[in-house]
Amino acid sequence: MNLPSSTPRVAAVFACYNRRDTAVECVRRLMAQTLPLDRVIVADNASTDGSGEALRSLDWQALEVLDIGDNLGNAGGVQAAMEHAYAQGMDAVWILDDD
Fold first, then answer.
1. pTM exceeds cut of 0.70
2. CA–CA gap between residue 76 and residue 53 (Å, rounded)
3. 8 A C-beta contact, residue 12 and residue 39
4. What are 27-84's pLDDT values in tens digits?
5. What is the Cα–Cα distance from 47 to 78, expressed in whole angstroms?
6. What is the dihedral of CA 49, 29, 78, 43, to 10 degrees?
7. What does the domain layout of the chain look like in residue ranges?
8. Element (H, E) at 1
9. How many angstroms separate the CA atoms of 54 and 33, rounded?
10. N or C: which end of the chain has fewer CB within 10 A?
């Protein structure tokens, strides 16, 4: 088995739609991980409950909230977040649900 010569860059990704409290709790738990993630990317599927604003208020450098603009559903939101992660040079993504 060939091991990479450097530590892989990993992003956790999930989609959110009108689940402010659950999404915030999910991110808080990710912030508490003993092995820090390089990025956490949340695709906000046009939430109307303030999910995006609540997530941004966490003020965590690794967190990025994507405003999708439409509700693409979970799969569409996750796909958008994955594409964004790989465009930022991530080596791998960890797909989550906010619950």
1. yes
2. 21
3. yes
4. 999 999 999 999 999 999 999 999 999 999 998 999 999 999 999 999 999 999 999 9
5. 15
6. 40
7. 10-95
8. none
9. 20
10. N
DSSP characters over 4-72: PSSPPPEEEEEEESS-HHHHHHHHHHHHT-SS--SEEEEEE-S-SSSHHHHHHTT--TTEEEEE-SS--
The set of residues, in sequence order, having a beta carbon less than 8 Å from that of 29 and lying 6+ positions away, is none
* Residue with tokens 């609540």, as numbered in its chain: 54
- Encoded tokens for 68: 């999708």
- Determine the length of the chain: 99
Is residue 47 within 8 Å of residue 16, measured between CB atoms? yes
